[in-house]
Amino acid sequence: MAVNVFSTSATTENLSRHEMIAWINDSLSMSLTKIEQLCSGAAYCQFMDMLFEHVIPMKRVKFAAKLEHEYISNYKLLQTSFKKVGVDKIIPIEKLVKGRFQDNFEFCQWFKKFFDANYGGSEYDPVQARGSAGSSPLEPKEPTGARPPPRRTVKTIAPKAGRVKSSPKTSAAPVSSQLKTEIADLNNELTTAKLTIEGLEKERDFYFNKLRSIEVICQEEDVAPLEPVHRILEILYATEDGFAIPEGEGEDADDEQPLVESDRDLGSCEEAALSDQF
Fold it and tell me: Which residues contact 19 (CB under 8 A, 6 or more apart)?
């Protein structure tokens, strides 16, 4: 049975990302370059095969996984192996398969402590163990005749005493060109809508002032008795069906209350007034 471990940043000094990458590459003969590549779960499956023989069916591990559903398949194998050896840890599969640095780094830190607590020091050939399971995409092939770069060998890595690790900062994902184009189009549409509204408000005020001037002229004493004036006032004070004049107001009200109670009345009133003048 496995030894369960529990670790937090407050109780354990964790390795840096570079130290963690070096440990994994040396232990499994891989060529990882960043923590995010652990999201496939294949490396953890092989570590479990190293710790507990035959607990992981290595032929079912997808070392060349590139899609999220393939990652999930590897993590299911890993979770099953945990249950077989009595590990209480619940794997946050949905977070890990997204490939975000922080989630994968935290799980990797826990797994390193779990590995140290359960590893017995037995010999293990990771390349042979992978065998027919397929080569890992984390092991890029070198061009013919090219000299392979020297691999960093790390036997045992222990955190430095008194070293405080700050939480890694994740960089914001770059905005795609398509998203930038959509944002620019929306901004243009918004600007056009604002200009249209401003133009309509100016046009509304322009015609309202004209109607108000006509009303003032028609209310003058020297033109009020004329028959055409009465017809113009009837048109100005006309209302649509369903519209009621507020109490206390009438046709003879001599205050500054606007005559046209809604913007919809402006166009019809103006047209009627002009037709009567001609």
Answer: 154, 157
Report DSSP letters for the chain, one per residue: -PPP----TTT--PPPHHHHHHHHHHHHT----SGGGGGG-HHHHHHHHHHSTTSS-GGG--TT--SHHHHHHHHHHHHHHHHHHT--PPP-HHHHTTT-HHHHHHHHHHHHHHHHHH-------HHHHHGGG---TTSPPPPTTPPPPPPPP-S---PPTT--PPPPPPPPPPPPHHHHHHHHHHHHHHHHHHHHHHHHHHHHHHHHHHHHHHHHHHTSTTTTTSHHHHHHHHHHH---TT--PPTT--TT--SS--S--STHHHHHHHHHHHHHH-
pTM of the full structure: 0.49
Closest by Cα among 70, 22, 8 to 45: 70
pLDDT in tens, the chain (278 residues): 889 988 655 555 678 999 999 999 999 999 999 999 999 999 999 999 999 988 999 999 999 999 999 999 999 999 999 999 999 999 999 999 999 999 999 999 999 999 999 998 889 999 998 874 554 545 433 433 444 444 444 444 555 544 545 555 555 556 788 888 889 889 999 999 999 998 899 889 998 888 888 878 887 767 777 778 888 888 887 777 666 665 554 444 445 444 444 444 545 555 555 455 44
- What's the rounded Cα separation, in Å, for the pair 184 and 187? 5
Tokens of 126: 């990771």
